Amino acid sequence: MSQHRSDSRALHQWGKQLSEEKPRQHVKPDPRPTGDDAFALTDMYPNAAALFEHQSATIAEISTSSFVALDANVLLWPYEFNSASLAEVDRVYGLLRKKRRLVVPGQAAREFYKHRARKLASLSENIDGTIARANKSIFQNAIPILQDDPNYEAARELGATIAKSSQELVKKLECVKARLQSDVGSDPISSIYRKHFTSSVIEIDFAQDDRHSILLDAERRTRLRIAPGFKDQSKEDGGIGDLIIWKTILQEAGRRKGNCLFVTNEEKSDWWVKSGGAFQPRPELLDEYRRASNGGSLHLLPLSELLSLFAAKREIVQDVQDLEEASRQREQEKPIDVAAWIHRRAPLENSEILRSLHVRRNEYADRLGAIDRQLDNMRTAEISNRPTGYDQASSVTRNRLQTEKRMLLREMEACATEIATAQSDLAQYASSTSLNPMMRLWINERANGDDTAS
């Protein structure tokens, strides 16, 4: 009997501890850098005196002599231009190519090629919308009682004429759509690039073994928030694309020993110091470029400003600026990217909490099963021969087991509530229609208690 009391007290204490247990607090890592990371500022600016000695040249001072590097987003940008703006892009790129001042980083070319089809597909979807509207009949249902109304009859005849014109419009648009789909690389932008970029693409000079060092550099820049690319760790490439483009620019700066105009639509804080928008390029970029170019200057500018520097018509520059501003507004109004959010702390912690709740619930269920078996054994013993005094001891043990069972049932009920809450939270993460399908599957598996999900 003393063993029963001991087991009962231990179980009671264990149950009380679980019932009072607070959710595990995640210990935040020490934010202070260690090792070489502690000397990040020294590594970023190895020559302190040069920070005062160097005087950056203005855009006007270097516009006629610097090389011009194009970012990947700038290569895709002209798909939103009208024909007049596109003609100016063609003219400016042609001038730069002839003077051997045009630089297209290989990584930028690859990203353009990867996303070009998606840009063309969006144009095709726009055409589909126009076709759908043109196919709608103006007079879908005639109104019998107005058949003798001359104005109504005239309107119906005009509607028939419009419908016939709409059919011709649809045929023309379907031809345009078919050409976009079948003639790969024949669109106006690709044709311009074929003229000017073939001899302008610059590859970064690194061997297969150097890839690891670039990855380590990207990880350190992300860890210490050193430009560029530390805001892009949620991208498919982990943000290394921006770093490869940057290293290509530095390589070309070392070869030319001159200034650079980097044309980009990028406005994130891993390229710019922000103050109500892009204010100045991040200082570590300017100094890293100075060191690579032996004293050169770097400027970041949008495509509209490049066109202005090369005397594009004022109305064309304004059209491009309007498009850039519209894009900027879309970025500011863009909802949270749930596919990127899933990589962050909150949902991952939620899934770990859910995992521990499932483990705890299973432990409760196992213990309840053991108590039920013990109670069943006691009931079996009560109807058989038993020694004197057994009824009293059995009653005490039964009461304790039943108390422990009620306690465990309450704990299981509370645990079930917590599981439902955690599952609801994960389901909310998975509700976005823009979420990557593999990410949605990952969340749903975790919400359903599949610990093998990865």
Provide structural commentary.
The chain starts with a helix and ends in a 7-residue tail after the last helix. It is mostly helical and 454 residues long. The protein folds into 2 domains: 2-25 and 341-447; 54-334. The protein has 18 helices and 7 strands. Residues 18-27 and 341-345 have low confidence and may be disordered. Strands 3-2-1-4-7 form a 5-stranded parallel β-sheet. A two-stranded antiparallel sheet has the order 5-6.
Fraction in beta strands: 5-15%
Mean pLDDT across every amino acid position: 80
Shape call: flat
Q: How far from one another are the termini?
A: 49 Å
> What is Rg?
34 Å
Main structural class: mainly alpha
Query: In order across it, which strands form the biggest sheet?
Result: 3-2-1-4-7
Helix share bin: 55-70%
Largest β-sheet summary: 5 strands, parallel
Succession of helices and strands: HHHHEHHEHHHEHHEEEHEHHHHHH
Low-confidence stretches: 18-27, 341-345
Helical segment tally?
18
State the total count of DSSP E strands. 7
What is the total domain count? 2
Keyphrases for this structure?
454 residues, mainly alpha, 5-stranded parallel sheet, two-stranded antiparallel sheet, 7 strands, flat
Please render the helix and strand layout as text:
Layout: H1 2-20, H2 40-44, H3 48-53, H4 59-62, E1 67-70, H5 72-76, H6 83-98, E2 102-105, H7 106-134, H8 150-182, H9 188-196, E3 201-202, H10 211-224, H11 240-256, E4 260-263, E5 272-274, E6 278-281, H12 283-293, E7 298-301, H13 303-309, H14 314-333, H15 338-341, H16 345-382, H17 390-429, H18 437-447
Parallel strand pairs: 1-2, 1-4, 2-3, 4-7
Antiparallel strand pairs: 5-6
Helix pairs in contact: 1-17, 6-9, 7-8, 11-12, 13-14, 16-17, 17-18
